[in-house]
Design brief:
The chain is of the alpha/beta class and 409 residues long. It is built from 16 helices and 15 strands. It has 2 domains: 105 residues, Urease, subunit C, domain 1 (Roll); 291 residues, Alpha-Beta Barrel (TIM Barrel). Helix 7 runs parallel beside helix 8. It is globular and about 70 Å long. The structure holds 3-[(4S)-2,5-dioxoimidazolidin-4-yl]propanoic acid and fe (iii) ion (FE). Fe (iii) ion binds next to loops.
Length: 409
Amino acid sequence: MIFDSLWTNLQIESMDGSKKIKNDSIGVKNGKLSWIGKKNDLSKLKLKSSNKIVDGKNKLVTPGLIDCHTHLLFSGNRANEFEMRQKGATYEEISKKGGGIMSTVRATRNATEEELYKLGKHRLEQFLSEGVTTVEIKSGYGLDFESEIKLLKVATRLQKDLSIRIQRTFLGAHVCPQKSEYKSKDEYIDFLCNTLLPEVKKQKLADAVDGFCEKIAFNTAQIEKLFKKAKELGFPVKLHAEQLSNQNGVSIAAKFNAISVDHLEHISEDSIKKMKKSRTTAVLLPGAYYFLKEKQKPPVDLFRKHKVPIAIATDFNPGTSPINSLLTICNMAQVLFGLTTQESLRAVTKNAALALGKDKEIGTLEAGKNADFVIWDVESISEISYGINLNPKKTIVINGRVVYDTLGI
Ligand code: DI6
Ligand code: FE
């Protein structure tokens, strides 16, 4: 066999649980990581060299980073609400007065597909520059037929046009639009189940379905109805749960074998046990915790105790986490939630892939997976997340191709 490219002289952090070995090599074929091991072993395996050999100069390599929870497609900003909160208003108060998510919905409905595409492309380029090779994008700032379809179409176009990988999540159940549009939350959920979600399926516009279970959004009965329909249509489900209060959303999510539940500041130990049984990944979002000045931290020790995998993500959105930097989020997860460096790197690679249901394809450096990796200009992994906005130089490979290079390898 001849590789398309052979990357040698690397320190590999494969994130698959094995120890880092010095002077290691990666063989790439057809966009896949087809071999990983010691360069000396190549002759034993009767592997010929390759079309292209790259000297990694003993640099550190990790899997491409994964941001498994973003609300990347929106128009406008909420700087005015930030000012209001600085003067003492709470997030819920602003939301009840028609601000919050609904104010971004108004701006996003008014934006054209082209405007949203340009905004999305620019934001994705910023993510890529930090070594992020996969980004999840949720809809949820449209909240009517036309606008939700518009957002998912933009996400689909970005998925086709850019080299960064994109997972699309339908979040029609973000909040209920104004009373003038739907008489009740139940009526809106019926519209999602009977009209919008079947259309999303028909046009193949989403990879998963999400909801927001919270006093200001939907209750467990409404989420259950949505998940039942989503599962019928063949979508994996995930849920924003126990962010501002404990609504027991995790129980419903576990019942439907959700791939992830996200936020979880107010989760109980009982619910964590249910997550273990349903193999659901915990996605922690320290950006929202920080930006809303929350007091209650997610129970990291209990996730560890029950061996529930922990992922972290930016939750990038204009209201509660206007932070388009996954490396900053890694730093916050360590400083605010007490994750170790290894845990935080695993949370944006292996475990983030689990949270997307993509662990067979991405998240670790193993033969058979996609050749998505980052060669970093650092001596150890702690250098990747210890600072804020240091953004080390790097070479980024997606599908076996160099797509970004400030290292000049
Ligand atoms: N939880 C969040 O933190 C974001 N959405 C959600 O369900 C907030 C989105 C926003 O305020 O615009
Ligand atoms: Fe979110």
